């Protein structure tokens, strides 16, 4: 896996990242840090990447478990250390899984498997942060 991150220039703290798969993502800093608030912060990208990683796992595991899943979203709420390096110290993942006749035990198992075995991002973040999760099931 590879990516390239390039600074956009002297007048701010904007960056553009090009992924190995050919996609472009913009990042920017807060105004108090010299940015223009035109794109997500780099640490927000870490958090959203983690959410994507675990949601991907949960959907895949539920499909393989023959659950009729129609939707999956996860809200991540994180706290960071007050001193540098400002690592994540706590992250709560709140999943909403939509489907027909979803088994709560299977949903819980899918989330735990993602966090404990498959989601590389959350497993890395668990080295500095306390990870917790909850879930709601919406019958569709």
From TrEMBL:
InterPro entries cross-referenced by the UniProt entry: KH_dom-like_a/b, OsmC/Ohr_fam, OsmC/Ohrsf
- PANTHER family given in the database record: PROTEIN YHFA (PTHR34352)
Q: What is this protein called?
A: Peroxiredoxin
Q: Can you name the source organism?
A: Pandoraea thiooxydans
